[in-house]
């Protein structure tokens, strides 16, 4: 195994990590933004208000996209 192969394998691993984690991160970002706008509009300054919707949204995302995420990781591992 030469240096170029190791670098390419590392690049592919980083790309796969970004690809698999992107759906959850994007959902958390959108939910956090919506909750933040809601908090700003209603002047509610509760820190835990954004936590529960994010947990539910990420759980739903994993339930919907979990099969694709696992298949992608298995294909990469093979």
What does this structure look like?
- This protein is elongated.
- The longest helix has 40 residues, at 3-42.
- The two termini are 17 Å apart.
- It is mainly alpha-helical and 78 residues long.
- The protein has helices spanning 3-42, 51-77.
Number of helices: 2
* DSSP strand count: 0
State the end-to-end distance: 17 Å
Q: Element order, helices and strands? A: HH
For the biggest sheet, the summary is: none
Which percent range describes the beta-strand content? under 5%
Shape: elongated
Query: Taking all residues together, what is the mean pLDDT?
Result: 91
Oligomerization category of the chains in this entry: single chain
Overall radius of gyration? 18 Å
SSE layout:
Blueprint lengths: L2 H40 L8 H27 L1
Keywords summarizing the entry:
78 residues; mainly alpha
Summarize the structure.
With 78 residues, the chain is mainly α. It has helices spanning 3-42, 51-77.
